[in-house]
Amino acid sequence: MKILVDAMGGDNAPKEIVKGCVEAVKSAEDFEILLLGDKQQIEDLLTTYRYSGNRISIRHTTEVITNNEAPTKAIKEKKDSSIVVGFQMLKEKLGDVFISAGSTGALMTGALFLLGRIRGVNRPALTPVVPSLSGGTVIADAGMNTTCKPINYMQFALMGKTYIEMVLGKNNPRIGLVNVGSEEEKGLPIIKQVNTLLKESNFNFIGNIEGNDIATGKVDVAVCDGFTGNVMLKMMEGSGKYMSNGLKKVFTANIVSKLAYMMLKSNFEVFKKSLDPNEFGGTPILGVNGIVYKCHGSCNFKAIKNTVLNSIELAKKNFIDRIREEIKELEVNNIGDVEI
Amino acid sequence: MKILVDAMGGDNAPKEIVKGCVEAVKSAEDFEILLLGDKQQIEDLLTTYRYSGNRISIRHTTEVITNNEAPTKAIKEKKDSSIVVGFQMLKEKLGDVFISAGSTGALMTGALFLLGRIRGVNRPALTPVVPSLSGGTVIADAGMNTTCKPINYMQFALMGKTYIEMVLGKNNPRIGLVNVGSEEEKGLPIIKQVNTLLKESNFNFIGNIEGNDIATGKVDVAVCDGFTGNVMLKMMEGSGKYMSNGLKKVFTANIVSKLAYMMLKSNFEVFKKSLDPNEFGGTPILGVNGIVYKCHGSCNFKAIKNTVLNSIELAKKNFIDRIREEIKELEVNNIGDVEI
How many of the other CB atoms lie within 10 Å of CB of A113? Predict the structure, then answer.
């Protein structure tokens, strides 16, 4: 198995990317990594991190797509960028997965136009796993589609469900539809429509949910349009920052507090780890013809390592084929035929 | 000044409501409270809380509107409910403020149909203050309007701004427009339209914001439609629950942790207080002809007390007149005339 990793994407590239890849190959067998980016820089970093094995190789690329570029133009024009080369290699089956912490826009555009959608998928989705009391909940979609049709919600549910089954090993994942108030008569007309479709489906649909039901783990997959999903995801991030800021003040208020913190430290670190987005790794772009992961621009080596390990699970379990089959079934069950 | 308080609304009514009112009159002068609800129950509770002064009186009502009733029907039919009587008295200037922890639907409906909108206000808004690193941020709207026109966003900005000026004493509040990504070209078409309007306005508009900018206090007023606002508000609630659950585990893991917690307790309580929605008090319904506060259904006496005290500030500063004038000005500035 070969994992393609964009060495040049993200605020901490190529340093943290290369480090993460070295850690990944050290921690598991049966796969190799191809790093895409500036050969010299990558080689120097491999030396820094004392890797001299043959499981990491390099494909030299001469261009980099930045966050400030218009995605469509960049994807079209920068043929030798790490992102475009990564997608091309994935398409040509020269790799099993493509991982990048580069421009979200360029990755979404590249995934759509260079890989293309899985037959039957109307719109791909970004589906991050966020911390929840039930061990992690998927938000589908979290930013690829600001407005959606009913069929999109249904497919987000399907892809989110399959993803969390494979990555977190959850059986029969509980699916909720994000709304204002859990009552069926509340909310936007489209939510009412989707609620009916989900009830009639084979999903383990538990009904409409509210924002608080995500972190409290009432569901395994929270289905919503990408505007709502993105805002929720960021809100969670902001709340986390507020909390850590407040706790820092509590722990450093005086000498007694500092001592107390030392006493709590080991348990607190475990809790902190559960909140660290780097621990969950990157976010997949689901619904395209290949396994693609977008890591946070500010991610560190841990995120890269964990993303590599997660992606191997998906690749081993033939995630793309499974989605292909399930999307077909969803159509057979007549849900693809409703007015969209 | 007379504050009308629904004694029968919410999960902890009438107990916590009456207790909150007793605490409020003990903590400040210059106002009296009229409790609406079952006379016998209220009298018994006043005895329990040892209140025998003359600043709390009772208006006996025989009906209660529950959360399970259709709001419009309930408001029409239950003429002697604490909510309907409260709105009627506020309308007839027999009180300066109306506070209730009862059905949100009934309160929104009652505010709209019994009090009516302030002339020029297109849609009222629910505008809670949420904890943020800048000392509290208003979300406008957080649930009254699931879909909005540009004029609604502009008026939410105006009402939110005036509210936070009066209640938190913030000068020239920073206003942000909730979007996916801060770039102007991103997001829904309506957001782009509103962005242009806000830039041309006299508001202290700092641009598009993301969900994380709320808790981190980048803005004082986060403007959005009520679907987005409600989901964000609830997401924050859920994140808080996740955090407190995790911290509880850390603090109670073993004897050493428990001891450490005792050492941190006083500082931790201060932090916890900053997160307690009861400390912020209720959420106003802005844009109607009267000062109306909705308290959380599960609120305790502290929320009632704090809501009474906040509402007095608004009433003293002639909040409704100020909104009336500013809405006119917003129209004069030609923003009311744009295509809506």
Answer: 14
Average pLDDT value for residue range A6-26: 97
Question: Around Cβ B11, how many Cβ atoms within 10 Å?
Answer: 12
Q: Name the residue of chain A whose CA is nearest to B238's CA.
A: A212
**Closest residue by Cα to residue A54 from A37, A38, A31:** A31
pLDDT over 80 at A285, yes or no? yes
The answer, yes or no, to whether residue B322 has pLDDT greater than 80, is: yes
CA nearest neighbour of B125 among B203, B226, B220: B226
Give the distance from residue B47's alpha carbon to the nearest chain A alpha carbon, in angstroms: 37
Q: Which has the closest alpha carbon to A224: B142, B227, B308?
A: B227
DSSP assignment letter at A96: S
| Predicted pLDDT at A219 | 98
Q: What DSSP string describes A43-89?
A: HHHHHHTT--SSSEEEEE--B---TTS-HHHHHHH-TTBHHHHHHHH
Q: Which chain B residues are closer than 8 Å to A212 by Cβ?
A: 234-235, 237-238, 241
pLDDT in tens, B213-233: 999 999 999 999 999 999 999
- Option in B187, B214, B253 nearest A235 (CB): B214
Fold of the domain spanning A1-121+287-317: Isopropylmalate Dehydrogenase (3.40.718)
Give the distance from residue A228's alpha carbon to the nearest chain B alpha carbon, in angstroms. Answer: 6
Question: Cβ of B260 and A256 within 8 Å?
Answer: no
CA torsion sign for B23, B26, B28, B30 is positive
Terminal C-alpha separation, chain A: 39
Contacts of A316 (CB under 8 A, 6+ apart): A1
Q: Closest by alpha carbon to B267, among A245, A243, A253, A239?
A: A253
Distance of alpha carbon B9 from alpha carbon B46, whole angstroms: 17
Instruction: State how far residue B147 is from chain A, nearest Cα, in angstroms.
Output: 8
Choosing among B130, B234, B275, which should be mutated to test the A contact, i.e. which has the most A CBs within 10 A? B234
State pLDDT tens for residues A198-208: 999 999 999 99
pLDDT of B338 strictly over 70: no
CA distances (Å), B259 to each of A25, A48, A264, B255, B256, in order? 42, 44, 9, 6, 5
Helix (H, G, I), strand (E, B) or coil at B90: helix
Q: Domain residue spans in chain A? A: 1-121+287-317, 122-281
Give me the mean pLDDT over the A167-173 stretch: 94
B35 by DSSP, 3-state: which?
A: strand
Task: Verify cis geometry, omega within 30 degrees of 0, for the bond prior to B80.
Answer: no
The domain defined by B122-281 carries CATH number 3.40.50.2000: no
pLDDT above 90 coverage of chain B, percent: 89
pTM metric for this prediction: 0.92
